[in-house]
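does this look right to u?? magnesium ion version
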Amino acid sequence: MQKQKIMGGIIGVVVGDALGLPVQFASRELRRQRPVTGMEGWGSFKLPPGYWSDDSSLTLCLVESICRHEIDPADAGARFLKWYEDGYWTPTGYAFDVGNATTEAMERMRTGIPAEKAGPNNETDNGNGALMRILPAAIYLAEEDDTTMAAGIHLMSGITHGHLRSKVACCLYTMMVRELLAGATPQQAYRSLCHTQELTKLPGMVPGELQHFTRILSGKIDELPEAEINSDGYVIHTLEAALWCLLRNDNYQDTVLEAVNLGWDTDTTAAVVGGLAGIAYGLGGIPAEWIQFLPRQEEILELAEEFADKVINHKNSSPI
Ligand SMILES: [Mg+2]
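got this back:
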């Protein structure tokens, strides 16, 4: 059961990314006129149905890094650089759809800056590029205490996104992952997140940052009308949109399609919520015909299974 959830999370990111990629940058108005209902392909990047982008490439790099080296930013950063320079873990042989902060981080790493300090940390560097690829670290650290979890997540976010806002967003995402892995429904997981007493003690949750998470932590994000949900590339907007879609649907398919049909940064919104929905509904909850479209699907499934075993063994070997 746990294995199905872990594998569902990883595959859920890739499928969400692939569903959204062909309509990335297109407006919500366009989606209203012609909603996406399945794997389409072509469109924004002129790639066949099922092709996935940076969100999945970096997630798979991180999965592989954790399988071999656990939480090791230097190793994860080296794999990200291999993606950026050589197209490692891409379906095309080259990196594409690369975000601004990630580009800057990769260039900084090339000059010898250590991976954990590579992510730029200005307030304007809070795109969703760390959140979209943090899931493997979130799953791996889910059962750790908040301090240990936050330290690991901050390190892993910081490879491409060094600002506290991105790091805190990744921590809140991890707290949802923790609940969903433990068997909570999306609604139960969200309620637990919003009722966490010690949230203000979470590393990085300083007053100046906390205010940006008010709508997320209100306990009522799903009650907002669609017009108030933004689906651009800002990390707060992506986390809000992901939770909104997760809480308003009761299966993987409807959840990720709603994310794609919000328009704009469709691949990443769908990848971020796809990870959560993949855990909530398990690998079996993801339509098999969508998985069939993914290039390198056998390698991805094999890696996801290796990762699930690694996580389960790690959990069993942790001192109680
Ligand atoms: Mg992308």
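The chain has a mean pLDDT of 96. idk if thats expected tbh
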